[in-house]
Amino acid sequence: MTQSNRLEVLVQQHGNHLYRAALAILGNVAEAEDAVQETYLKFLTADPELRDENHARAWLLHVLANICKSTLRRRRRHPTEELLDCYPAPDHETRDLVEAIQELPANQRASVHLFYYEGYSTEEIAAILGQRPGTIRSHLSRARETLRQKLKGGF
What we know:
Number of helices: 7
CATH superfamily of the largest domain: RNA polymerase sigma factor, region 2, helix turn helix motif
Structural class: mainly alpha
Number of strands: 0
Distance between the termini: 53 Å
CATH architecture of the largest domain: Orthogonal Bundle
Largest sheet: none
CATH class of the largest domain: Mainly Alpha
């Protein structure tokens, strides 16, 4: 299989997961799209040997997480103003939850997304984000407490 065919298969199989993860980490549609595209460019330049689908997904998520971290560092050095005040959701409860998640710090947002929306264990998230499992559990615990307070009416 040629490299362009491999890339096309990866985009079809993992594009949605990568985009959702990037959006959860960055909270910005344009930056999430850029991060996903940069991940695929890394794939093309690195041409890694991917053993199976799980390895491919983990490799892509690891690269994406590093790109998102770089974007967040760049954002801190050169702050800009966000245009969106809220993010669309199908109903009122879901919208409140999504908005509350978007207000979490980036490390907590990433952990929440990978744990609840992508189904990864804390050990897998730690490997993807390059952190210790205890740190990930701490991020999840703090995020849960923050969300609990905000959704009870502590806005």
